[in-house]
Amino acid sequence: MTDFSSLGLSEPLLTAVEEAGYKKPTPVQAKAIPMVLTGRDIMASAQTGTGKTAGFTLPLLHRLSEMRASQDIRALVLVPTRELALQVGESFATYGKHLPLNAVTVFGGVDMAPQIEALEAGADILIATPGRLLDLISKEHVSLGKLRILVLDEADRMLDLGFKDDIDRILQGVPAKRQSLLFSATFSPEIKQLASEFQRHPVKVEVSSQNSAAKTVQQSVYPVDHHDKPEILSYIIHGGRWNKALVFVRTKKSANKVAELLVQDGIQARAIHSDKSQHLRTRTLDDFKRNRFQVLVATDVAARGLDIEQLPLVVNYDLPKVAQDYVHRIGRSGRAGTAGCAITLMSPEERKLMDGIRQLVKQSLKVEPVPYFENGEVRPVESYEQPQKEKPKPSRKGKNHRGKSSTRKSPAGKHKNKRTKTRS
């Protein structure tokens, strides 16, 4: 099996990779890194969680380290969201720790002054969201005239968010002679058109079929009534003894409400969405990564660019209206070859959305009963006596009060499970 030392990377980078705990490159890294090192344009298709960020940060750092030192920005990584900008910035910091190269991350929603100060101190690499980059260019704090390498990360998401015009404006200010790398979850007609506009005879790198969910993620779909979702979510977290979970909801209002209800059930939870300040979002994500609370409830603002090691569980509390977002959501778990679990709570009103997801991922995604838990593990039907048919009486006292749920059995008193499973 390929290891990092066979990919052509320099010793400082190999040392950083080893210190980060990685032994073997993922398929996208094994294919992309050698091609990027040749200086060719690359058009890569890779799902989230496949290690694609290191697939361009490592060879980009290698190439820059071999160039003559300069005070100019020589590499630009364009990303669609603030969260992804932070993730990519962390990747450069991790792998470039033994190299004399400086990476600066800029994005909107925060004060521009510290970013300007960081740029004035010198930047070899700039990671930026399109809007903030254009602001900095217009104020003459950024010049891209000496750029050598351009990366469009999650290009499909950039088009989804309406950044095409911004990308065109940015491309007008970069040299024609450069290396251009494009990473996308799909090779849609729109992505192919974008590639034709800024790349020269790109080499295609594909590591999995388009729109496929990560094979390392075990997917389960539970049929529930919409009004039962809070009880069942709490039951799953408590009963399965999940110490870390990412829960996706459709709206900002739902994110706040679900997090509040979980807290009232004795589960440490916080919400994250676009109405939260960037400072608060960054702090919340950092606390979640450091295991300072148990459940992060998020809108799809966090579906891309949220890189969390060892995230065992993703829950689709609400099904996404865009089927592709299902793949991005569950891709937060099972990253870089690790095992993960994705649970979807499907109400009768969401069956058509599930049909669309099935068609996209080309999987049956069989609907199964909410499992019965015993001592944190899923138990087969024959191991317990079937509960009573009626639902337990609600434990809430008033509109905003929820009783403790840690001792609950099945939330609706009628769910069976036909298989067992174990988790690490």
UniProtKB/TrEMBL annotation:
A GO molecular function assigned to this protein is: helicase activity
* Domain spans labelled DEAD-box RNA helicase Q: 2-30
Q: Which Gene3D superfamilies match?
A: P-loop containing nucleotide triphosphate hydrolases
Biased composition, class Basic and acidic residues, residue ranges: 376-393
Give the residue ranges of motif Q motif: 2-30
Q: Which SMART domains match?
A: DEXDc (SM00487), HELICc (SM00490)
InterPro entries reported in the protein's UniProt record: DEAD/DEAH_box_helicase_dom, DEAD/DEAH_RhlB, DEAD_box_RNA_helicase, Helicase_ATP-bd, Helicase_C-like, P-loop_NTPase, RNA-helicase_DEAD-box_CS, RNA_helicase_DEAD_Q_motif
Alphabetized UniProt keyword annotations: ATP-binding, Helicase, Hydrolase, Nucleotide-binding
Q: Name one Pfam family in it.
A: Helicase_C
Which domain of life does the protein's organism represent?
Bacteria
- Domain called Helicase C-terminal: residue spans: 231-378
- What are the residue boundaries of the Helicase ATP-binding domain, all occurrences included? 33-205
The answer on whether this UniProt entry bears the keyword Nucleotide-binding reads yes
For region Disordered, the annotated ranges are 376-424
| Protein name per UniProt | DEAD/DEAH box helicase
- Organism of provenance: Parendozoicomonas callyspongiae
